[in-house]
Design a protein that fits this description.
- This protein is mostly helical.
- Helices cover 48% and strands 11% of the residues.
- It contains three helices and two strands; from the N terminus they run E-E-H-H-H.
- The chain has helices at 23-31, 34-43, 50-64, and strands at 11-14, 17-20.
- The protein has a two-stranded antiparallel sheet.
- The model is unreliable at 1-9 (pLDDT under 50).
């Protein structure tokens, strides 16, 4: 599935899996706990930068998976 042209972050959402064109965004997303990755993937949020992804990821890491160690 090609990235959505209207999505500034250039990501493709396939089920629970997100694929980002930016390797740094992809690496950060893959480092998140599974519960956080699934929440972001299912949310349908349009995340346009590494900064946005980091802010969202850290928020949900602290609220959804507070007891899980960083990956």
């Amino acid at each position: 599935m090609p990235p959505n042209k209207n999505d500034p972050g250039g990501h493709t959402n396939v089920g629970d899996c997100m694929k980002y064109e930016d390797p740094k965004m992809e690496a950060y997303f893959n480092s998140l706990p599974g519960v956080v990755k699934r929440y972001i993937a299912k949310s349908g949020a349009v995340i346009g930068s590494l900064g946005e992804l980091t802010m969202i990821g850290e928020h949900f890491k602290n609220s959804l998976a507070p007891d899980q160690p960083d990956a």
